[in-house]
């Protein structure tokens, strides 16, 4: 069971590469069917643990099943848009209802955060929201106006680099700049 969970998570991380490979090397419809099964499996295995991800997984199932039934392979390109919109919704809602998503994540490692940290964590959450807007916009743009190769490059590499830069840059700032000033 654990191996299946790891496999489905890994395959979802490389979704853009899988789409590129599938659209270039598999018979029409086969990729949509495989991705639909993968998303359904992920949904069933993780439904209790990933409540925030139920909506994007369901949307992915609908997109892949719809792609298969309608014979529209271009629908497979929309999944990164769904993921970014969902993450924007989750992070944005946390800004409205509190505590912010980054604060929630920070409290996993440090339950007793100082009150002074809360505004900073809200700003970082807002920065993540901005990144989801940019990535979602670029996912839309690349799905509609560029080649499959450019779509794959942005959604399968550049978007991950941007997220890594934000996460890593924030960690470096918090670890070396904020702690030095404290």
Write the layout of secondary structure elements.
Elements: H1 2-13, H2 15-25, H3 30-46, H4 54-70, H5 79-97, H6 101-109, H7 117-145, H8 148-181
Helix pairs in contact: 1-3, 2-8, 3-4, 4-5, 5-7, 6-7, 7-8
Provide structural commentary.
- By secondary structure, the chain is mainly alpha-helical.
- It has one domain (2-181).
- 81% of the residues lie in helices and 0% in strands.
- It has 8 helices and no strands.
- The longest helix is centred in the C-terminal third of the chain and has 34 residues, at 148-181.
- It is globular.
- It starts with a helix and ends with a helix.
- The mean pLDDT is 88.
- Keywords: Membrane, Transmembrane, Transmembrane helix.
First-to-last CA distance: 45 Å
Percent helix range = over 70%
SSE pattern:
HHHHHHHH
Helix/strand structural class: mainly alpha
* Gyration radius, in Å: 18 Å
Number of strands: 0
Low-confidence stretches: none
Overall residue-averaged pLDDT value: 88
**DSSP strand (E) fraction?**
under 5%
Tell me about the biggest sheet? none
